[in-house]
Amino acid sequence: MLKPLATALTVGSGGHGGTFAPSLFTGAMLGGAMGQLINIIFPEMTVSPGAYALVGMGAVVAGTTHASLTALIMVFEMTNNYKIILPLMLSIIISTVISKGILKGSLYTIRLGREGTGLDIYGRKSSVLKSMRISTIIEDTNVFLQESDNYHRVVEILRESNFETLLVRNSEGKILGVITYSDLRKTMFDEEMSSVVDFLIAGDLMKKRFPVISEDENSDAALKMMETFDLEYLPVYDLEKDFKGIVTKQKILRVYQNELFKTEKDMDMST
Which domains are assigned to the chain? Predict the structure, then answer.
């Protein structure tokens, strides 16, 4: 009971008491205790607490490091027993899902962020992303849906588009909403909707609420927004709320790689 508390206090306060070894110990102790408890409650099962200790070890390591495959292979190599694979995989999946739902990174990446190394949870340099203004990487797009387009026209344009999300605008050019492929898929396989699709227009199918970004923002904020909402691009507006274009995740990452290469090249030349 004291080991997880001591580790949490040490790591949480900025100390370096280790992460991997305490995860192994904590998982083994919790798993072993669970095995002993189950044997007390269900004595007819006679399951070895050691098996629970091994599974608990893998689950805690996966939850703290977000390295699920590493935890799985490590425990399997220790046991060389295929019978443990299924309960181990189930425990690792549950642990990882819960951990990622609470934390947006592993204990290692969170510590790097707190120490000011400028890395996000994907290992990208936030300083480079924040230096890239949205106004410099805006892309023009000519693929729009008109509010009055019928259902079949919407399906046709979306099928020919490179994106799974399209913007809907009115006759005055104002963006009113978005339509995604997943929205149309519901109507394609819904028997009740199939009888009325001929009467549907883009204005009926679109979502009126969607995330946008200002051209004064940086690429770091845009990427976080796209990754949070699982989007391919964001509509960009200026300070007067006029539509300027779109910024895509692909363009941001491409420019980021170029900027990173330039930065590293300048450092090599300076040395």
Answer: 2-114 (no CATH), 126-270 (3.10.580.10)
- Token duo for residue 81: 């027993």
User: Distance between CA atoms of 148 and 168, rounded to whole angstroms?
Assistant: 9
User: Across-strand partners of 234?
Assistant: 247
CA dihedral (154, 157, 160, 164) positive or negative: negative
Q: Look up tokens 């927004």; give the residue.
A: 225
The stretch 174-191 carries a mean pLDDT of: 79
- Going through 66-156 in order, the beta strands assigned E by DSSP cover 144-146
- pLDDT averaged over every residue in the chain: 83
Place 170 in a pLDDT band, splitting at 50, 70 and 90: confident
Burial environment of residue 101 by CB neighbours within 10 A (0 to 12, 13 to 18, 19 or more): exposed
Whether the per-residue pLDDT at 263 is higher than 70: the answer is: no
DSSP code of 118?
-
What is the predicted pLDDT for the residue at 207? Answer: 85
Sort 45 into a burial class: Cβ within 10 Å, 0-12 / 13-18 / 19+: exposed
CA 32 to chain centre: 33
Predicted pLDDT of residue 119: 54
199 DSSP assignment: G
Rounded Cα–Cα distance for residues 236 and 213 (Å)? 5
pLDDT value, residue 246:
92
pTM above 0.90, yes or no: no
DSSP annotation of 198: G
Which tokens hold the place of 94? 């549950």
Mean pLDDT of 48-56: 90
